[in-house]
Amino acid sequence: MSHVFPRHCHAEMPTAVGGEGVFLIDSQGNRYLDGSGGAAVSCLGHGDREVTDAIKAQLDRLAFAHTGFLTSEPAEALADLLIEHAPGDLDRVYFVSGGSEATEAAIKLARQYWVEKGQPQRSRLIARRQSYHGNTIGALSAGGNEWRRQQFGPLLLDVSHIAPCYEYRERGDGETAEEYGLRAAEALREEILRLGPDTVMAFMAEPVVGATAGAVPPAPGYFQRVREICDEYGILLILDEVMCGMGRTGSLFACEQDGVAPDILCIAKGLGAGYQPIGAMLCSKAIYDTIASGSGFFQHGHTYIGHPVATAAGLAVVRAILDRDLLPQVRKKGASLQQALEARFGQHPHVGDIRGRGLFRGIELVEDRATKAPFDPSRKIAARLKKAAFARGLICYPMSGTIDGKHGDHVLLAPPFIISDAEIGMLTDRLAAAMEDVLGSDS
Ligand code: PLP
């Protein structure tokens, strides 16, 4: 009997024993095409020798040094490399072990920043209803995904959730994408004014929404207007790129494509590419200087922050993304994937929308294409599709979510950046077969 506490208590899962390129292999020798990179993690694919060699070399040199006493060479080098390529005036990197730790750290840093600026009344966070910021209790309070939150209410933080930027469902008839983007951003201003501007510490959002909604990109101009609104009321902008960052959308940081720079940026997943658990929070010089010239101490920390082996892995991953020129590849292959999905599912009666950026793509599943009516949750479409795809040798990321009490199903695709055209074809074939298994002859 297994003593592992699995996520799904009754799931019978094969044992993974190997990984090669875009494939994972189980103990029976079955090969699964990793069409979602796990959860948008494995950006370099499996078995990347440069990364594993870097990890081994670091282990041989130094496995651990507590950051309360010492820094380490890979942590310093990775911070420098990230800042060299980071947008705006992001200037400092705080390493953590994953995405939830990055968003938790961001929330605490924003709070401490205002306390040290002598404005402790700025304690409120605004986030969006269509969002996921992690599973620790603070990060969960920030996220808007109802089904993940429901058992843990009343949660901890003073967070209000505003409407997302969700063109597929919210853009009005006759409204251009740009007009919608500006209108959607005004929800932030309304909420700031409702709460009182000087009680708000920060607005937190994912540039391209991942797990809650399946790669929903912002409408044009949305984030630029959000940035303007934050600046107008002196509120910090925290962008959560845990899923959409590190090249996934075709630029190292997703927000580059929207022409905005946040005050705090969270990354994880693709930073370690699955080779090591690592995340990071980048913050502006102004925030760092406030803490440095105030208490001089960020009141936060975990034992494994800035871990030498994890940062050595992150360094090898970021170097691989840049040195192998993978970002143009992500844009090119992302366009091929979008085309393949449109060719295969563009007229599918249960596909409402196919969207995304780079190799971060989402398919929204609906009961009725014309009315956009979602499936009844009791049909458990996402869960069934995940199982059917797996049986067909495809790992993809179907999820259901609830926003404002309304249910929705979608499939997230985030294959490794090294996926070939033939493998993109295999991915769409296997997904089509799984859709047919679940949705029958309608496929
Ligand atoms: N933020 C976003 C946007 C995410 O997608 C996730 C995970 O899916 C997290 C935060 C939490 O990251 P982790 O699971 O590494 O704690």
From TrEMBL:
Coiled-coil parts of chain: none
Keyword Transmembrane helix: no
Cofactor: pyridoxal 5'-phosphate
UniProt xrefs under NCBIfam families: PRK07483.1
Family: Belongs to the class-III pyridoxal-phosphate-dependent aminotransferase family.
Protein name as annotated: Aspartate aminotransferase family protein
Any one GO molecular-function label of the UniProt entry: transaminase activity
InterPro entries attached to this UniProt entry: Aminotrans_3, Aminotrans_3_PPA_site, PyrdxlP-dep_Trfase, PyrdxlP-dep_Trfase_major, PyrdxlP-dep_Trfase_small
Phylogenetic lineage: Bacteria, Pseudomonadati, Pseudomonadota, Alphaproteobacteria, Rhodobacterales
Keyword Protease attached: no
Keywords: Aminotransferase, Pyridoxal phosphate, Transferase
